[in-house]
Write a structure and sequence with these properties.
The protein has 205 residues and is an alpha/beta fold. It is built from nine helices and seven strands.
Length: 205
């Protein structure tokens, strides 16, 4: 992924939203632009506003301070996978993790998420629930059944459409509801990064 990607077209179910990705990453999307392109779906408007506001804040923080990013990623070196089919949600989570120093991989659906985990060892997988080909519940089951306990990734639900109870029952260990804030992601990575580091240390002896 890079910041030179061209415009992306997003079918939002109601209305049609065409957003210039470069402007998105520079924090230049205005709320009135969102209102014009997202039709009458007030929930979608709110989600988009929060998403672009989050990106804008991240870009400003990058200029102000780099210490947070350097410290967290160096303290907890993690391989992270984002399993998410919605492009906006992908970009928001990717940028949040990038600010913390991580270069996450992205799987566009559950099938690709399983394939990614078969080809690379991930410490954390942020798992959306509603995805094409294979949903997050099915993907979680496949991933958890494919590895021994010590090699299973931490799977964290990243969704707006499923309950925490159902996600935990499916084998996920944590739950993040969309739209997610930077503070939530930072806390989540710190919490599980610490646990993963402790587990790796124990396995080394």
């Amino acid at each position: 992924m890079n910041n030179s990607l061209q415009s992306l077209d997003l079918k939002l179910g109601i209305g049609y939203c065409k957003i210039n990705e470069q402007s998105c990453f520079n924090g230049n999307i205005q709320s009135n632009d969102i209102s014009k392109t997202s039709g009458q779906n007030s929930h979608m408007k709110n989600v988009l506003k929060k998403a672009f506001k989050t990106i804008e804040i991240i870009e400003k923080w990058k200029i102000v301070s780099k210490s947070k990013k350097e410290v967290l990623s160096e303290r907890f070196p993690l391989n992270i996978l984002i399993a998410e089919d919605n492009l906006i949600n992908q970009k928001v989570l990717y940028k949040l993790l990038e600010f913390l120093g991580y270069k996450a991989d992205v799987a566009l659906d559950g099938v690709k998420a399983v394939e990614c985990c078969e080809n690379k060892k991930y410490d954390i997988v942020f798992m959306d629930i509603e995805m094409p080909e294979m949903d997050g519940f099915q993907a979680t089951e496949c991933i958890l059944n494919s590895f021994k306990v010590e090699k299973k990734p931490i799977i964290i639900a990243f969704t707006a459409n499923a309950s925490k109870k159902d996600c935990l029952k499916a084998g996920m260990v944590d739950f993040l509801s969309k739209p997610v804030s930077f503070e939530q992601i930072e806390k989540c990575v710190k919490t599980w990064g610490k646990k993963i580091s402790q587990k790796n240390l124990q396995q080394a002896f």
